[in-house]
Amino acid sequence: MKAKLILLGGGGHCKSCIDVIESTGLYEIHGILDRAEFVGTKVLDYDIIGTDEDVLKYHEQGFHFFITVGQIKSAAVRKKLFCRLSDMGAEMATIVSATAVLSKYAQLGAGTILMHQAIVNAAAKVGANAIINTAANIEHDVVVGDHCHISTYAVVNGDCKIGNEVFIGSNATISSQVEVSDNTVVGAGAVVYKNIKQQGTYAGNPAKIIG
């Protein structure tokens, strides 16, 4: 029997997540929770059935949850939702696309999604509530913290350590054995050759702090 799933957040990222969730064949999406003004509308084939205030009701009915709010730069909204679900003991899905490659020696945390054609290689560890987006590559022995977004076609090379609440933009590259501190933003197309110890926004090749 498929687990019944409630999605939190009905924007563009939700659409991408729905496609990935459907590809797994493991879940029945019951509906989506979003802002009150969107209740009664649809995202793709699924109804927005309530707001975040309804989480406890669905938890008590035994539903599983998945956060489909996107993350551009700040992880604050996703982290707040995740902590709320964790505090009530809710069951959070971990989603792996049917077209993704997840090594049997790798680990994914609760609430994380591995999207279409993404790769998480041997001995890599990805934390909770993370987005490993389309065709992103997490190489061997990489550690990715909680509440991170590794965006489309980004590459994190072997033995890197990525902190918590990090955003790595599309087509960015993190060189082998590099450490990236918590709450860092690496812009699209940036190339990081050296450890990032100071949180901030980095861009360019080689990546330099810009904010």
Can you put this structure into words, describing what you see?
The chain has about 210 residues and is α/β, with parallel strands linked by helices. The protein has two domains: about 5-95, 3-Layer(aba) Sandwich (Rossmann fold); about 95-205, Hexapeptide repeat proteins (UDP N-Acetylglucosamine Acyltransferase, domain 1, 3 Solenoid), CATH 2.160.10. It is about 15% helix and about 30% strand. It has an eight-stranded mixed sheet, covered by helices on one side. A six-stranded mixed sheet has the order 3-4-2-1-5-6. The chain is globular. The model has no long low-confidence stretch (mean pLDDT about 95).
CATH names the topology of the largest domain as: UDP N-Acetylglucosamine Acyltransferase, domain 1
- The fraction of residues in strands falls at 25-35%
Radius of gyration: 17 Å
> What is the helical fraction, as a range of percent?
10-25%
Number of domains: 2
Tell me about the biggest sheet? 8 strands, mixed
Instruction: Report the end-to-end length measured between terminal Cα atoms.
Output: 49 Å
Mean pLDDT: 97
The CATH homologous superfamily name of the largest domain equals Hexapeptide repeat proteins
CATH architecture field of the largest domain: 3 Solenoid
Strand order of the largest sheet: 7-10-13-16-19-22-24-25
Q: In sequence order, what are the helices and strands, one letter per element?
A: EHEEEHEHEEEEEEEEEEEEEEEEEEEE
Q: What is the number of strand segments?
A: 25
Give the uncertain stretches in residue-range form.
none
Structural class: alpha/beta
* Overall morphology: globular
